[in-house]
Amino acid sequence: MTRSFYGVRALDGVDLRVEAHRITGLIGPNGAGKTTLFNCISGVVPSDSGAVRFDGRDITGWRPDRIAAAGLVRTFQIARGFPRLSVYENLLLYGDRQPGEAVTAAVLRPPAVSRRERELIDRAHGVARRLNLVRVLNDPAASLSGGQKKLLEIGRVLMAGPRLIMLDEPVAGVNPTLAREIAVHLRGLVAEGLTILLIEHHMDTIAQLCDHVVVLAEGRNLAEGSFADLARDARVQEAYMGRRRWVS
Known about the structure:
Elements: E1 2-5, E2 8-12, E3 23-27, H1 34-41, E4 53-54, E5 57-58, H2 64-69, E6 72-74, H3 87-93, H4 103-108, H5 111-130, H6 146-159, E7 164-168, H7 176-191, E8 195-199, H8 203-209, E9 212-217, E10 220-225, H9 227-231, H10 234-241
Helix pairs in contact: 3-6, 5-6
């Protein structure tokens, strides 16, 4: 995959494979192209060349909403959502197959609409319990701590019924205790059959979570393998810290 901005190559032939039911880490120094790759995969930004295949289908050029509906859902580095809506409302808003968007369905409320709304309400409560957000369920999203906003971001993704989740720095700015809690949640999701691709700068989190790690540098693949192997790779050490050795 390639992508340029005003003549600068943000992605220069990146090739990435994410194995099902695993956590794959995507790391690299600032400016390596990690978030640009996420944006191209999720349809937020079109690539200049290359293809994205998900579950055997070529999804290159699909709209972001169509990609999400297919089961490939992402979060953003800065937690998004609607700050004035409650946590509960934010979760409901991201539920898939919303039944009330058509005027006829919203006014007449046929049984299928009521049934789907109850399903989404039950799912929202289940997600809130899972992520320890029940006590702030009625609080506006703007009042949450940084860590709680990260949990809400994960919760919104879960409401969309994903198969592969792309997480952009899920523990950035989060205290160590909550970072460990988020890691436990992510491992639990994979154990239940989901697949995760994550960007993260906290090497402790990468070492703890990831089954496989891909390193980018200057928009290209630099190395990949287990975190332990990459920590000893001279190319990775130089990309991150010049000539100094990485101590793990």
